[in-house]
Amino acid sequence: MSLDTDRVGPTDATAQGPAVAARPPTSGRRRWLSFWGPPFVVFLMVIGAWYGVSYLLLSPERRFLVPPPHDVIQVSFLDPANLQELLSALWLSTKVAFIGLAIAIVIGMVSAVAMSQARWIERSLYPYAVMTETIPILALVPLFGFWFGFGLNSRVLVCVLFSLFPIIANALFGLQSVTQEHQDLFTLHGANRATRLWKLQFPAALPSIFTGLRISAGLCVIGAIVGDEFFKQGDPGIGILIDLYRSRLQSEQMVGAIILASLLGILVFWFFGFVGRRVVGSWHESASGSDVQ
User: Does the predicted model carry a pTM greater than 0.85?
Assistant: First the structure.
């Protein structure tokens, strides 16, 4: 009995060519919908719940507590004066957050590399790295003002403390996660410490490093807002505006400022995720299925 009947010959393949070529667009649309559809549905649910709270649960006299979305957009983003004020404050907070994040990246990566090279260095430094995560930073904020003033330096320092530990912890975990087989292979070829670090440990640690950067990206925005609310000298950041709008009961502007601050955190988080997927590429399973082609 011949089993060639199940084969597709050249003629059949040619005949099916247009049908096969027509599948990728449909598949791409389905994949795009599966990627963006669920977040969009959740967004609509949140907007619906927002309107429900504003108009069904609150009386007109108390509606200022949760202003409806269209009022927030009209007052905060469609009024040129209010929008200019919000964008100026957002730019200052963005600058503070990025400076603090850059300093945290440098300190965190240097510390992680040093701790990965010697156990005694890890035992000496890691407890103090943990302290940056467990110490009540809000309790230290007034001290930062006394020591460094109530301006830009103290705000940046708060961002550094908020962002530092995830970078150290994730980078150190990645650098120490190299398999023993790969370590033995580099030992067999007589690789020195620098070669082993640059060509083995760093590539293996990239997924963990970018995970730490994505976490710290959101935390640095929180640190900038916290610093703004405590150090109110100089130009106002977005945190100062939030506190100012709260005291004036300007709820539409306050919600608008919160939305802009949240969008800033999401944008920075997405940026490091995008860069991480491009740097790591397709060789690691963390990059698979995370993009819509």
Answer: no
